[in-house]
Amino acid sequence: MNAYKKYVIIDNSQQLILSDLPFKAGQKVEIIILAEDNNELDSELEELRQKIDSATEQMLAENVTDGELVFEQLQTRLKNEYGLE
Known about the structure:
Layout: H1 43-60, H2 64-82
Helix pairs in contact: 1-2
């Protein structure tokens, strides 16, 4: 199974438009929408999620050098600030 994750904020129109997806035309996909609990959302973690999304998009566009640099920085930050490895 090929999974693709993206974080978005629902605007006032309460619509969600998905574009630039990494799937082939005619490919069947399953859409699952999960709402985050605002109490668990930490601004630093959200920033890291955005950087991960950005790096993933760079890698999908075959701009791997920038993506590798971003992931290396994220790994260092997760290790130093959150004790994660």
